[in-house]
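INTERNAL AUDIT FORM
Audit reference: QA-55
Scope: verify that the stored structure record matches its stored sequence.
Auditor: D.O.
Record contents follow.
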Amino acid sequence: MVARKPGPKGPITAPPLDWSDAPERGWPRIVWFAETFLTVPKGQGAKQSFRLRDWQVDIVKAFFPTDAEVAAGTSQPMQGVLSLPRGNGKSGLAAVLAVYALLADEQEGAQVIVVASDERQAGVIYKAAVRMIETSDRLAEQVHIYADRVTVPHTDSELRTLPADEGALQGWAPTLALVDELHVVQQKHWDAVVGGLGKHERSLAMAISTPSDSTESVMWALRDYALEEKPEDFLYVEYAAPEGCELTDEDAWYEANPALGDFLKIEALRAQRRTMPEAAFRRYRLGQWVGSENTWLPWGVFRDLGEPRRVTKRDRVVLGFDGSSSGDSTVLVGCTVPKNGQTPYLFTVAMWESAGKSPGWRVPRDEVDAAVAKAFADYNVVELACDPWGWQSEVQAWAKRHGERRVVEFNTAHAARMAPATDRMYEAILESRIAHDGDPRLVQHFENAVAKVTHLGALIAKDRKSRDRKIDSAVASISALERATWHANKSARVGSFAA
């Protein structure tokens, strides 16, 4: 092994590596290169030849087809995502690809960048790659190794770690960009990475990650894009347990974890299953999209209740209003009063959000006032339930304009009132006794909500770790459903007395 020396580097005296007898570029050469030149950096099999497993070869085949395969019609992805549970050797595989792209892909001036949310995370793949180079005399004598980069003077190529920062990511033209743990990387950073692609004969941006806990993430957006559009230049590969599987179904564990029974031990998963929260185990160990560990609703259950339905003047409607001044969303939603066995129906009337606005942006109160007036004109509104915080004067004006009996205060910060209302919304969603218009903002706010347990029952709150995940539509919807249910019960009582 060639020792790494700090300070200025001397000239490279070894001749360039000769790849004339190597397999053709692409996956055959990657498999051969790993076994011929590289060793496992740590863990089980450390210092042994790095032999790619069959499932790893399948991944490499998909992302790195040969020139002959591309000429015959195989798609050559320029972007892609590999979703894989923890413990399946993501970092080791990424390090193999990084070293291959730096030294063996025969691209002059290759730029290989490893991007992560912070320098520590980016260093995981980088350190593994450096260790692989250092333990191979033939590779180590070709490079200069620094704290944050490896250079190959013969080919003017470079491997470098970069934080997920727009400024740091600009100006690169990567032959291979490896984005580690995409679930914590923002859309703007992914855009900066892929913006430099296409300036070399081959270039690929490949993210390797466990699933995100939010549908607001770039990882979810890319997954949705790949599954819906099926573009030829974008590849999405996912290892996950079947949806709805039991937590104790070890056959599902094997389906999600291709390394299980090899370098991933089932005893470790059995122990973690007993101690990890269910959502965390499903996400990190089964590769499932289940939301954050304390998400209020099971993943996807509210989304699945979306359906098209026309709300007419014949439908009695309760409006729910939750206002803000700048940071949170200001929301006006509607909920039909159920009748004749129909389920209540939630729909978005109007919403004002700060996202994408200038720092000094404020909610346009005149627009909100106009939207309330229009809603009263367009729908058969029996009540407007308003959270009065910060909007007391507007609520009073609406009561004067539309009638004090039709405009009421509903303090969503009052736990004694909000907790039972939240419980009733939760039960209605889980039992499919409510529907909604499918507005993606409404869905997102429900999926963002986390449970806050109190002695009065569960309330919904924003995730403390991600304060930008808004929940205002969910809050307004809870108040609207609560009051719509009250009006439905009131009508039933009046009907029974009349009979």
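Auditor finding: record pair retrieved intact. The CA atoms of residues 425 and 480 lie 10 Å apart.
Action required: none
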